[in-house]
């Protein structure tokens, strides 16, 4: 049975997951969770890989043709953490008002949560190293607490503590809103990624796809993430927005995903991705360099010399979903003012 967070204990899920039996219980239930569900039928399962925690099964595409694919424990864990972090953030904000009403200071309430997070970090070194995205999610909660404590302090204290808060700004709703509002104003320059004909509805659908398949990290509420992604792709100078997209896959999968998105977004390629400084890699959490993507592309080409149809089985459902999205939206033509760049493929 999974332990759930509450308003009174907004990070109880993470305490149980890291410090009690939550992690082991989740792993034990992984193989039985999917038996007989609409996602996977028992007769389609080829093998349960108990060492790597992967279910190998047969899936069907839109033409009802079967192909082998995988369900990975690590991807299910990412989805769960995205959901639980968003829930904890909501509970923390609601709890702040609730506890103030009951006469408990906001600082005491927030400081108690902060101490618990630090206790989790101290007691879960191996597990956090094994799953870096779990550390990232916990850090986003810690950043939220720091921001709320700063806002609760006097103006002079807040000014002193605001020095060097660039790390927090990436997840600060006020900072994001200011950047988004500024970049949504009419501009004489075309969008850097040549997305002139793609509207908000498209980016809402794209963000849904990102969320469904855990392609990117979601530090904020869904609507704010749509606004952020819209602002990045619509800006004539995305590097000036201060906004970033944290990708959740290794470079090989990232290249395959971006390659497929290139059928919809005309000016999405290694050169523009590097220049935008908006796309962060999984391992180092830094903006992608063009060389990183070309290196992954070289590896993919090597694999396809041995097998022309090779693709990463991990992202086959993602590719199919992007293809469906591409059918709905016509590729946005590149602006003549954009300088040509090397495509991903």
Overview of the structural elements:
- The protein contains 16 helices and five strands.
- It has 345 residues and is mainly alpha-helical.
- The strands form two sheets. The protein has a three-stranded antiparallel beta sheet with strand order 1-2-3.
- It starts with 11 loop residues before the first helix and ends in a 17-residue tail after the last helix.
Outline of this structure?
This protein folds into 2 domains: 1-165, no CATH class; 170-328, no CATH class. It is built from 16 helices and 5 strands. It has helices spanning 12-19, 22-28, 30-33, 73-101, 106-123, 125-130, 132-152, 155-161, 166-169, 173-183, 200-212, 222-234, 251-261, 270-276, 290-306, 316-328, and strands at 45-49, 54-60, 66-72, 245-246, 279-280.
- Computed structural class: mainly alpha
Strand arrangement within the widest β-sheet reads 1-2-3
Name the shape in a single word. Answer: globular
Q: What is the arithmetic mean of pLDDT? A: 75
Say how many strands there are.
5
Query: Stretches where pLDDT falls below 50 for ≥5 residues?
Result: 40-51, 154-187, 331-343
| C-alpha Rg (nearest Å) | 22 Å
- Sheet having the most strands: 3 strands, antiparallel
Tally the structural domains. Answer: 2
Summarize the amount of helix as a percent range.
40-55%
Q: Summarize the helix and strand pattern as letters.
A: HHHEEEHHHHHHHHHEHHEHH
Number of helices: 16
Strand content: 5-15%
Distance between the termini: 46 Å
């Amino acid at each position: 049975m999974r332990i759930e967070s509450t308003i009174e204990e907004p990070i109880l899920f993470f305490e149980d997951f890291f410090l009690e039996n939550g992690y082991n219980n989740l792993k034990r239930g992984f193989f039985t969770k999917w038996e007989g569900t609409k996602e996977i039928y028992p007769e389609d399962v080829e093998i349960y890989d108990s060492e790597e925690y992967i279910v190998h099964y047969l899936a069907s595409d839109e033409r009802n043709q079967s192909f082998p694919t995988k369900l990975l424990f690590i991807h299910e864990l990412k989805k769960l953490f995205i959901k639980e972090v968003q829930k904890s953030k909501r509970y923390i904000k609601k709890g702040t008002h609730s506890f103030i009403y009951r006469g408990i200071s906001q600082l005491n309430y927030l400081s108690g949560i902060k101490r618990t997070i630090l206790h989790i970090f101290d007691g879960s070194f191996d597990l956090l190293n094994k799953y870096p995205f779990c550390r990232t999610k916990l850090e986003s909660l810690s950043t939220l607490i720091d921001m709320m404590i700063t806002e609760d302090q006097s103006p002079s204290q807040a000014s002193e503590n605001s020095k060097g808060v660039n790390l927090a700004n990436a997840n600060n709703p006020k900072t994001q809103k200011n950047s988004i509002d500024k970049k949504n104003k009419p501009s004489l320059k075309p969008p850097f990624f040549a997305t002139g004909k793609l509207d908000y509805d498209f980016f809402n659908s794209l963000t849904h796809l990102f969320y469904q398949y855990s392609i990117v990290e979601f530090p904020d509420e869904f609507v704010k993430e749509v606004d952020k992604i819209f602002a990045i792709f619509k800006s004539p100078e995305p590097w000036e927005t201060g906004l970033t997209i944290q990708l959740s896959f290794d470079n090989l999968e990232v290249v395959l995903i971006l390659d497929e998105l290139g059928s919809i977004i005309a000016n999405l390629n290694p050169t523009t991705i590097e220049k935008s400084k908006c796309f962060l890699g999984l391992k180092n959490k830094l903006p992608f360099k063009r060389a990183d993507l070309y290196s992954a592309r070289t590896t993919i080409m090597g694999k396809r010399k041995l097998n022309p149809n090779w693709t990463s089985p991990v992202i086959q459902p993602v590719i199919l979903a992007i293809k469906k999205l591409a059918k709905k939206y016509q590729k946005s033509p590149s602006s003549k003012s954009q300088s040509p760049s090397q495509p991903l493929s």
